[in-house]
């Protein structure tokens, strides 16, 4: 018999969302309340295993009495507040953010980016062919994962996952200023000469594909990557006794990458190098 811990009950508060009364647990964010109410609010930098960074500004909403639009990912719901998620001001702001992002980086592997660009009628090409872009060549300096800064939106999720929120390796940070700011390891050198322990937790939280498995990168380059043909099977890692859950992504009877369920109480989406990348022995058919 499985016993589910109930935890400490939280008091419900009431506020207005798009003119309709809703309830949310005390301490919940506006984004949490919107999702619970079935309201789709786009977001890129928000992660369910990380503290919000308010970096991408795609999730902004309008709150009655607030001078500026507020990020739904970090603003807590308050009793009696009036929130609107689809006003002209909100839509215009999201449109501008999407235009600026899509005109400077490659969002082709960002889930739902194309859908949002269409929904908000964003036109990234309106800045012209000379708009500055991060057209950098992908950095392939190891056999496990690839860094493609041409897709990076500086959401800081990888920095947080590598830092004090999870791994505590502090191998990566932000260097440079303005448009030249980017994610990098020490002295912006090769990954193999850094403090990286190859846990891949930065890959797990990356929302754009700027960090990806080497296997996924190679298959995309060859045109064989097909998520619709992949199956996902969650199992338990066999390397040690911690009990980490692994989700194996399989295509054509080959494991192509490994993730971990974010709601797992042991891992919360995090793994070590063995759990995330040590799967080749399973399919070594030599």
From TrEMBL:
Q: Which Pfam families does the entry link to?
A: Fer2_4, Fer4_7, Molybdop_Fe4S4
**Domain (4Fe-4S Mo/W bis-MGD-type): residue spans on this chain:** 230-286
Transmembrane region positions? none
Ranges for the 4Fe-4S ferredoxin-type domain? 187-216
Q: Which InterPro entries match?
A: 2Fe-2S_ferredoxin-like_sf (IPR036010), 2Fe-2S_ferredoxin-type (IPR001041), 4Fe4S_Fe-S-bd (IPR017896), 4Fe4S_Fe_S_CS (IPR017900), Mopterin_OxRdtase_4Fe-4S_dom (IPR006963), MopterinOxRdtase_cofactor_BS (IPR027467), PSI_iron-sulfur_center (IPR050157)
Q: Does the keyword Transmembrane helix apply?
A: no
Alphabetically list the UniProt keywords.
4Fe-4S, Iron, Iron-sulfur, Metal-binding
The 2Fe-2S ferredoxin-type domain covers which part of the protein? 11-89
Q: Which PANTHER family match?
A: HYDROGENASE SUBUNIT, PHOTOSYSTEM I IRON-SULFUR CENTER-RELATED
Name listed for the protein in its UniProt record: 2Fe-2S iron-sulfur cluster-binding protein
